[in-house]
Amino acid sequence: MKGIIRRIREKIPSHEITSESLRLGILLAIVGGFLDAYTFICRGGVFANAETGNIVLVALGITNRNYKNVFMAALPIFAFVVGVIVTEIIREKSIKNYSESARAEKFILIIEAIVLFIIGFIPDTVPDIFVTTTISFVSSVQISSFRRLVDSPYSTTMCTGNLRTASQAAYLAITKKDEAACARSIRYIIVIASFLFGASLGGILTVNFGVKSIWTCSIILFISKILFSIDEYRLIKRDI
Prior knowledge:
mainly alpha; DUF1275; two-stranded antiparallel ribbon
């Protein structure tokens, strides 16, 4: 089976590679939006997916000589960096062929799902920094592992870059009649809409179910893992 998957790797168009597909991007963007809403509502009023705000807080803490705040803001940044390093180690060990790469990506999704499931058991009496730091790690792993949407870079845990690329592609589509740019813009708009949906869903479920609402993300990530397995089976059947 490994040999079959390896042989057909080069034959697969970008949009059919699960890790770069729009359908996976939609699921991961929903998770990204959900986590931001979750941490903002019940985990300290912060957005744990992006570290720009934490970097600003570190700078302000140093300026005000409030080193406790510096430490608290630096923890999620450190977790994010660790997540990037862990992902790169996994990628280096699985870069040889599609079979190993897909296995690593499925492994990453399962780890994410398990970690978020465990977070659902942590009561809101526990200091929020432990949860937000862990979610920063999960976000880092996700953004580092799944960073291409068909033929372009993107993010599933923040929307600034996606919004810029969507706007640029829309401009080219309108002014240059560029069909490829039009398709790219639509893909990015769908991912942004998915992030918005995830944030709305996260807001509703977190208000109603509290800390355990994060289990929704675990379910979505397990569905993403199943998607990988289905695609592998489809590719094998097509090649036989």
